[in-house]
Specification:
- The chain has 465 residues and is of the alpha/beta class.
- It folds into three domains: 93 residues, NAD(P)-binding Rossmann-like Domain (Rossmann fold, 3-Layer(aba) Sandwich), CATH 3.40.50.720; 218 residues, 3-Layer(aba) Sandwich (UDP-N-acetylmuramoyl-L-alanine:D-glutamate ligase); 133 residues, Mur ligase, C-terminal domain (Protein-Tyrosine Phosphatase, Chain A), CATH 3.90.190.20.
- Helix 5 packs across helix 11 and helix 14 packs across helix 15.
- 51% of the residues are buried.
């Protein structure tokens, strides 16, 4: 845990007592703060009360007693409208911040300049964060891995000069962290997502840009327009005389003073203008596809900026075990390969998986996001058949029309059984049953993890798997 000692003696309001909210309450209390917390969920309130948190209805409080409102990232700050606690805080001139801001303030108080790597992006941020941490751990570094990837940032050990924090941050967390200033910040890519929470794509991009603006060294993807523009704006602002530095990262073209991909090879021009290969994803099953080359380019670039030996990067890439629900191999049945990519909750993420294989029996559907799967139609020559589930099934069937063989299966289990039977009789060398839903999971599952866990269980239940 990182006790938030810089709030010692203060009284703060906290709304949201899920995993990160309860961890935040613990850290504040351990640092000497008085926390008055609330959640609409009664079991969450009971859990917090059992841990000694002052659980009281914030709607009945005198807000002049609070120095801050600590808001959980899942609670709306601005869109579709501010949460009522946000409005109460603003009316009382109380700042609204999140757990990431508390971490940044504690770092500034107890170990200013302690190594802190913050990684964001619409897609790939979890893999990039986990891969960066893995390479650094292989190098013998004390690495604290957390944030949006799983372990709440305040559950990690405190910042220290000889300890690296590698943290995945979401747009919601950045929005609640005005003093975010990592040693190294990475913006992998940007595409439309969470528009319901930010209002417009421009607002969403502006929030992501705050991570880059606050970073001493920034790695910025230059293969999409929004990220490229953010990098250009940063360069224009800091100028050539600044100690700050922007490192461009591309998987489509060479870049000067940056990192780029040449096929599966990762090339750096940071210290050698002629370019030096610093890693290769060839043959690494956990880093299949161009999207994972991009993730590896960021991870390798971050480690390379710290001047670790190139063999450290190479070995870290080779030994990377992968993450659950992200292009995860969960089994084989004869020549049929089963891939769990439940984390692909939008078309842009599903595109990465579809580009990674040739003979695909594709399970898609769930709670549809803006645009559906229409952007994926140019890739349908890779799909032997689609198996459609959840609320989006009929909409997806209309999109696929007569051009793509498909079946409306309704449930994930039914889709898997039908896909496995079809794939077994395929004439392809390695047919792939791919769960890459291009949808949120909330129509049938609590989250993408439970959807992926169900897929893994159903695959394990197949005969002769």
């Amino acid at each position: 845990m990182t006790p938030v000692t810089c709030f010692s003696g203060k009284t703060v309001a906290l709304f949201g007592l899920g995993g990160s909210g309860l961890a935040t309450a613990r850290a504040l209390m351990a640092g000497g703060a008085h926390v008055v917390a609330w959640d609409d969920n009664a079991p969450a309130r009971a859990r917090a009360g059992n841990e000694g948190v002052d659980v009281s209805d914030l709607d009945k409080q005198d807000w002049s007693r609070f120095s801050s409102l600590i808001l959980s990232p899942g609670i709306p700050l601005t869109h579709p409208r501010p949460h009522w606690t946000v409005e109460r805080a603003k009316a009382a001139n109380v700042e609204v911040i999140g757990d990431l801001e508390l971490f940044c303030r504690e770092r500034a108080a107890i170990a200013p300049g302690a190594p802190f790597i913050a990684i964001t992006g619409t897609n790939g941020k979890s893999t990039t964060t986990a891969l960066t941490a893995h390479i650094l751990r292989e190098a013998g570094i004390d690495v604290q891995l957390g944030g949006n990837i799983g372990t709440p940032v305040l559950e990690l050990l405190p910042p220290a000069r000889d300890r690296m924090h590698v943290v995945e941050v979401s747009s919601f967390q950045i929005d609640l962290a005005p003093s975010l200033n990592p040693s190294v910040g990475a913006l992998i890519n940007l595409s439309p997502d969470h528009i319901d929470r930010h209002g417009t794509m421009e607002n969403y991009a502006a929030v992501k840009a705050r991570l880059i603006e606050g970073s001493i060294i920034a790695l910025v993807g230059v293969d999409d327009e929004y990220s490229w523009r953010i990098g250009q704006q940063r360069d224009a602002r800091i100028g050539s005389a600044s100690a700050r530095f922007t490192c461009p990262v591309s998987v489509t073209r060479p870049v000067a003073r940056g990192v780029f991909a040449d096929g599966t090879k990762i090339v750096s021009t940071l210290y050698d203008p002629a370019g030096k290969v610093i890693g290769d994803t060839a043959g690494v099953s956990t880093l299949r596809g161009a999207h994972n080359v991009q993730n590896a380019a960021f991870a390798a670039g971050i480690v390379h900026l710290w001047r670790f030996p190139l063999e450290t990067i190479a070995e870290g890439l080779r030994s990377y075990p992968g993450l659950p629900h992200r292009m995860e191999e969960v089994g084989r049945l004869g020549k049929v390969l089963f891939i769990n990519d439940s984390k692909a909750t939008n078309a842009d993420a599903a595109e990465k998986a579809l580009l990674s294989f040739d003979d695909i029996y594709w399970i898609a559907g769930g709670q549809m996001k803006e645009g559906g799967i229409r952007p994926l139609m140019p890739l349908m020559d890779r799909v032997r058949k689609a198996y459609l589930i959840g609320a989006a099934a009929n909409d997806f069937a209309r999109t696929l029309g007569d051009d793509v063989p498909h079946a409306v299966c309704g449930t994930l289990e039914a889709a898997l059984i039908e896909a496995a039977m079809d794939a077994e009789t395929s004439d392809a060398r390695e047919p792939v049953v791919l769960l890459s839903p291009a949808c949120a999971s909330y129509d049938q599952f609590a989250n993408y993890e439970s959807r992926g866990d169900a897929f893994r269980k159903y695959v394990a239940g197949l005969t002769n798997i």
